[in-house]
Write a structure and sequence with these properties.
Blueprint lengths: L4 E4 L7 H11 L3 E6 L15 H4 L4 E6 L5 H14 L7 E4 L14 H29 L2 E7 L10 H21 L5 E7 L24 H8 L11 H8 L1
Helix pairs in contact: 1-7, 3-4, 4-5
GO molecular function, one term: triacylglycerol lipase activity
Protein name: Ketoreductase domain-containing protein
Keywords: NADP, Oxidoreductase
Length: 241
């Protein structure tokens, strides 16, 4: 039986992308797990699967992919075309993303542009590249957005606005690709127990108006206030799959 093919972006260990890739693998799909640094994508180990899944697991391939690089996208597309033997791509998951935290009044425009390059323009670039393969297979695009894009939350305005843009791009793709037989799903993810908060910190200028509440802002950027609401990452991934 020929396995369906899925490509997931942003699959570094500890993130939702890796959890999604494992869940697709457990479901018996041929998984292309991609990341800018492929050495950060571990192989799915035996203990990630239930006894039933161990009898019918999928195939696992790790590919380097920088969603902001035209040459990287071109190379990845060629690899997928070759490895799928002309069958197309059944599922594309746009998960790659980043975040910065802190008051907008102190936001670095360079860092903000970098976040948009990955979260927004990266999603657009990846989807554009793989549309022909998705049309061929009458596949599905899953775009990982966030409820943060629908609710204005202080101290994470750059990230929130990028996710709002993701939602609108995704919903527009949904309308435009439907006549071509491609479904588009916008996943409005809530608070998930990932390592994203461990990657970022907030350091404000000494003269900042917000200096008196810097510890509060730092705790929020580290996810301290939503810990009680975090959903287990593997459960979220299984639900999405």
């Amino acid at each position: 039986m020929v396995k369906k093919n899925v490509l997931v972006t942003g699959c570094s260990a500890g993130g939702l992308g890796y959890a999604l890739a494992k869940a697709f693998y457990n479901a018996g799909l041929h998984v292309f797990a991609t990341a800018r640094d492929p050495t950060k994508v571990p192989e799915p180990t035996e203990d990630t699967r239930t006894p039933t899944e161990r009898d019918d697991h999928g195939e696992w391939e790790v590919l380097p992919l920088d969603v902001t690089s035209q040459s990287s996208l071109d190379w990845c597309l060629r690899q997928v075309m070759e490895k799928t033997d002309g069958r197309g791509l059944d599922v594309l998951v746009n998960n790659a993303g980043g975040a910065i935290f802190g008051p907008l009044a102190h936001a670095s425009l360079e860092e903000a542009r970098r976040i948009y390059d990955v979260n927004v323009w990266g999603l657009l670039a990846v989807t554009k590249h793989f549309v022909p393969l998705l049309v061929q297979a009458e596949g599905v695009v899953v775009n990982i957005s966030s409820i943060a894009g629908a609710v204005p939350l202080a101290w994470q305005g750059v990230y929130n606005s990028s996710k709002a843009a993701v939602t609108h791009l995704s919903e527009t793709f949904r309308i435009e690709l439907a006549p071509l037989g491609v479904r588009v799903v916008t996943a409005m993810v809530g608070s998930v127990d990932t390592q994203i908060y461990q990657k970022y910190d907030v350091t404000m200028p000494a003269e900042s108006w917000y200096k008196p509440i810097e510890p509060f802002i730092r705790n929020q950027s580290r996810g301290k206030f939503q810990e009680q609401y975090n959903e287990p990452i593997d459960q979220v991934a299984r639900n999405l799959v």
